[in-house]
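Example for tutorial group B:
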């Protein structure tokens, strides 16, 4: 998975380790809470190739900038957004495109719903300057777990899932009937059939989907980014939307797949806790096995989307043109806005 790794930022407790991986002359470390705004604050000189610093802006997400005499400014942050109350919350910045440019940090965010936030969590989110939210959940999901909308953000309900074919025989079932389907899975072949039907969901999602029409509209203007894409777990409907975003910006398929698969890491603890709470509800061990697998992500799921796109179209540009009436000029406009 390619990413712009000229700076690698990691966090341990309340300290950030900023590692510079290319030789620079007189590197200095700055931080900002508003990436690419020109507003930044000096922290320290970088001795050697590394600086370890305390959180420079408590209560806000820090972005680090390395300035030097030998290179344009380099900006990066952690992949994970440090807000534990939101599942699978992360930044899609820093990925390299196939043309050698970089997706801007802090511009495309993804994760789960904003429905469990404390007052501190809401305050943290308000500082991130999110301009648009795309909520891919169904109406029933939102009714039970409504989103918090950060200050200044426009909330858009854009349900992405039309139906969920799970049970043996391929019966189409809405998302909320998932537990009922578990009882229909009673043997190993049922598990495989159900997984194949789940992959059918991924094959269907990218095509002529009004939710993703709305997604592409948000790419047209600076006024609608930063953008936050989410569903319940931030992995399936969001996973497809975020992969389409990266591909539209010129990021390669392998990199987009790598970003998708990070949900297995960032959802690992949440999945364990959720699974422990619900596993006794299912009489069938095979239903439990299937449920455990779809609670995470697998390469074959998103690969089903990619395979169907390139089975039907010779290129991703052709897919955008035929499915969403997006011209090459519009794509070029997106890349001028959102890449550095």
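The residue assignment follows.
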């Amino acid at each position: 998975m390619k990413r712009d790794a000229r700076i690698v930022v990691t966090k341990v407790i309340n300290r950030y380790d900023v590692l510079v991986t290319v030789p620079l002359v007189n590197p200095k470390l700055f931080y900002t809470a508003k990436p690419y705004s020109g507003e930044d604050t000096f922290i320290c000189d970088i001795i050697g190739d590394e600086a370890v610093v305390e959180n420079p802006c408590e209560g806000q997400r820090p972005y680090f900038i390395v300035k030097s005499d030998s290179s344009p400014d380099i900006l990066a942050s952690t992949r994970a957004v440090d807000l534990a109350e939101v599942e699978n919350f992360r930044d899609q910045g820093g990925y390299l495109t196939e043309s050698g440019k970089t997706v801007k940090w802090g511009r495309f965010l993804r994760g789960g719903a904003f429905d469990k936030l404390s007052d501190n969590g809401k305050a943290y989110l308000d500082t991130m300057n999110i301009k648009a939210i795309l909520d891919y959940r169904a109406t029933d999901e939102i009714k039970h777990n409504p989103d918090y909308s950060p200050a200044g953000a426009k909330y858009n309900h854009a349900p992405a899932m039309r139906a969920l074919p799970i049970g043996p025989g391929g019966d189409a079932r809405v998302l909320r009937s998932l537990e009922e389907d578990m009882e229909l899975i009673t043997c190993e072949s049922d598990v495989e059939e159900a997984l194949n039907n789940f992959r059918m969901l991924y094959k269907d999602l990218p095509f002529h989907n009004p939710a993703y029409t709305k997604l592409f509209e948000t790419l047209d203007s600076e006024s609608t980014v930063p953008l936050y894409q989410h569903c319940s777990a931030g992995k399936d409907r969001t996973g497809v939307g975020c992969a389409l975003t990266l591909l539209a910006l010129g990021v390669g398929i392998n990199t987009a797949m790598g970003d998708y698969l990070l949900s297995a890491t960032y959802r690992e603890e949440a999945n364990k806790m959720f699974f422990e709470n619900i596993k006794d509800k299912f009489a069938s061990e095979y239903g439990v096995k299937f449920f455990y697998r779809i609670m995470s992500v697998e390469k074959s799921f998103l690969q089903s989307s990619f395979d169907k796109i390139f089975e039907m179209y010779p290129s991703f540009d052709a897919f955008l043109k035929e499915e969403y009436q997006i011209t090459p000029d519009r794509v070029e406009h997106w890349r001028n806005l959102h890449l550095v």
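Residues 188-204 form the longest helix (17 residues). Compare this with the pattern of hydrophobic and polar residues in the output above.
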